[in-house]
């Protein structure tokens, strides 16, 4: 019996020493490697886009929520020009800034997609989380496209849905 107790204590100690999982993929892409200096002499078309995301949704009532994994896609829909994302801010349901993923210009190559993943255990955004992206393009007719996919599965059941950004 003493051996069983020792093993249980050892297992409890080892599991307590494991690092906690990241609440979000804060840096799925090395943002610094994507950084670019924008020349003020370039005639760039600038704008901002709002994107709603849900890190959790209500289940059964307003007192119980269900966590979701969020994949935010930053897409360049141009086949010829890079687009530049100048800032990516994530806000919670109450409008409080949770985090800034980057606050310097990054480039996205033609037809490339860059993603931000918010893990299912990260409920900071709540039921009304959102992003604001500031961006710039050379061609005012081809703005970046922002989309989010929210998903969760339990056993053989799953839920998923998407949202799309709107220019503000």
Describe this structure in words.
The protein is elongated, with a radius of gyration of 20 Å. Helices cover 10% and strands 48% of the residues. The mean pLDDT is 85. The protein starts with a helix and ends with a strand. The strands form three sheets. Strands 1, 5, 6, 7, 9 and 12 form a six-stranded antiparallel beta sheet that branches. By secondary structure, it is mainly beta. The chain has a single domain, classed as Sandwich (Jelly Rolls), CATH 2.60.120. The chain has one helix at 2-17; strands spanning 45-53, 56-59, 61-67, 69-75, 83-91, 97-102, 106-108, 113-118, 129-137, 145-154, 157-164, 166-167. The relative contact order is 0.27. β2 and β3 (61-67) form a beta hairpin.
Which characteristics define this entry?
single chain; Jelly Rolls; four-stranded antiparallel β-sheet; 168 residues; mainly beta
- What's the alpha carbon Rg, rounded to whole Å? 20 Å
Shape: elongated
Note the beta-strand portion. over 45%
What is the number of helical segments per DSSP (H or I, 4+ residues)? 1
Tell me the span between the first and last alpha carbons: 67 Å
Task: Return the CATH topology.
Answer: Jelly Rolls
| Total domains | 1
Helix content class: under 10%
Following the backbone from N to C, one meets helices and strands in this order, namely HEEEEEEEEEEEE
Low-confidence stretches: none
Largest sheet: 6 strands, antiparallel
Task: Quickly give the structural class.
Answer: mainly beta
Tally of strands: 12
């Amino acid at each position: 019996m003493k051996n069983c107790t020792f093993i249980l204590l050892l297992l409890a100690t080892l599991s307590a020493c494991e690092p906690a999982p990241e609440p979000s993929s804060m840096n799925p892409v090395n943002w610094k490697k994507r950084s670019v200096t924008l020349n003020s002499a370039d005639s760039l078309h600038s704008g901002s886009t709002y994107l709603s995301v849900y890190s959790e949704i209500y289940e059964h009532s307003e007192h119980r929520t269900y966590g979701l994994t969020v994949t935010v896609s930053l897409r360049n829909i141009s086949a010829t020009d890079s687009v530049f994302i100048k800032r990516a801010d994530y806000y919670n349901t109450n409008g409080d800034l949770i985090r800034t993923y980057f606050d310097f210009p990054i480039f996205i190559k033609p037809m490339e997609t860059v993603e931000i993943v918010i893990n299912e255990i990260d409920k900071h955004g709540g039921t009304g989380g959102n992003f604001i992206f500031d961006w710039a393009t050379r061609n005012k007719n081809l703005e970046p496209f922002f989309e989010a996919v929210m998903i969760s599965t339990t056993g053989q059941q799953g839920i998923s849905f998407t949202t799309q950004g709107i220019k503000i």
